[in-house]
Amino acid sequence: MKEVYVLATEQSVPPSLDALRAAFATDEVEFVPHEGDWGFTVRADGSEVKVVLKPLSDGRPRVPQELFSGSPEAFARVEKSQACYAFLLEPGGAQPTLPVFEALWTVRTLMEQAPGVLVDLTAFKLHEPEDVVEITELDFDIRDHVHLHAIELAEGDTPLWVHSHGMEKFGARDVEIFHLGEGDLLAAESFLHELCTDLAFAQGPALRSEVATSEGQSFTLVPSEEARANLLGVPLDAFEGHEGLFLTVVSPLGRHNTAELLATYRERFAKEPAEQTQAMHEEAQALLPAFLARFQRKGLMEPLTFLVRAPFETHPEGEVVVENLWLEAVTRDEGSVVGRLVDGAVHTTEWRKGAHVEVEEKQINALAIAREGRALNESELRALLNAERPM
C-alpha cells in the first residue's frame, strides 16, 4: 500500500475508535480497528484504506511553499499541527479513482473528529476541510488531484518543461511535455489536465500509438526513458529531483515539437471582444423574460435543459480575472437564477464544476436551451421562446 495523504491536526489526542466506528457505521463500509497501535482500516466497494497515527518522531510533514500549493492559513496550520495521520491505499485497479475517493471520504470523516489540513504527498497540495467536502461532493476535477510544474530547461523561445505530480495515487505515471514557451502554458495545462483525467479513469491512450485529442490533433505517448533520449540541449542534471518515470507527449513522428498539437487549445483562452460580450448581454437580456417564463413552466418529463452564462471572478496568483461560465438553471429566486455550474473556472478551482451558484438576472450575458443533450440553434431557440410572448 502507498502513503498518499497525511492529515495534520492541532488536536494532540486521537479521537476514540468507538466514536469513529459510529461515524463509519453504514451498510456499505466495513470499519476494522487495528490491534495494538491506534489505527483502523476502512473497506468499501472492493477498495481498502488504512489509517495510522504517525509517530511523533516523524515530525510534521515538510510542505515548502515553493513546491506545495495551498492557502497561507493552510501552511500555518500544518506548522502548528500536533498529530499526523497517514492514509494508505493500493493505487490503480479497474477503477483507479475509486480507492482515491474512498480515501478522501475517510479523510472527511476523520476530519469531523480531528479538524486539520490534508497534505497530498503525491501532488504537493494542501486541502482544508471545506476543500475536501467539495472534492467529495462535486464533479471530478483533475486539478484537485494533480499539480502541474513548469521548469526552464534551456535558453530560447521554447525553454519550458511542463510535467504533472499526483498521478501516482491513480496507479499511473505522471505526464510531461517539452519545448514550450510562456504563451503555451495555458494551452498545455488544458491539454495535460484532459490527458490526466483519462489516465485517472484508466481510459488513457495506448503507448506508442497515434491518438487524437478532443480537439482533433494527434500525438503519441511514450515512456520517458525512451522519449528523453531525443532531447537536444538539455543538461544531464536538469531532471534532478524528478528521477521517477513519466509518460512523454510527443508528435506522431516522435518529435518534441508540439506547437500544432496545442494550437486548438490556445483558442480556448482567446479573449472574447468586449463589443461581442456587450452585444450578447443585450440580446440575452431582451430574451430573458421569455426564457425564464418557459423555464418556469417546463414539465417534469420534458427533455429540455436551460442554460445561462454569467461573469465570475477568479484570482489566479492573486490577480483578478473574470471568466464567463455556463450554469444549468435549477430554480429562480427574486431577480436571480440558481443553478449548477456546467464547467469549472479555467484558471483556478474557486468555481468548481457541479457547484450550485446564484447569479443576478441582470448579469446574465448569454442563453442556451438543449433538447435531449443537443443545443438548439438560434432559430430553434427563438421559435421556442416566441411562443411565450403575449399575442
What's the overall geometry?
globular
Helix content: 25-40%
| CATH architecture heading of the largest domain | 2-Layer Sandwich
By DSSP, the count of extended strands is 19
Major sheet characteristics? 7 strands, antiparallel
How are the strands of the biggest sheet laid out side by side?
Answer: 2-3-4-5-1-6-7
Q: Structural class of the secondary elements? A: alpha+beta
Arithmetic mean pLDDT:
89
Pfam families: DUF2314
Organism: Corallococcus coralloides (strain ATCC 25202 / DSM 2259 / NBRC 100086 / M2)
Protein name: DUF2314 domain-containing protein
Domain DUF2314: 280-369
List keywords for this structure.
391 residues; alpha+beta; TATA-Binding Protein; 3 domains; 7-stranded antiparallel sheet; 6-stranded mixed sheet; 9 helices; globular; DUF2314
Overview of this structure, please?
It contains nine helices and 19 strands. It has about 400 residues and is of the alpha+beta class. It folds into three domains: about 1-140, TATA-Binding Protein, CATH 3.30.310; about 145-270, no CATH class; about 275-385, no CATH class. InterPro entries: DUF2314. This is DUF2314 domain-containing protein.
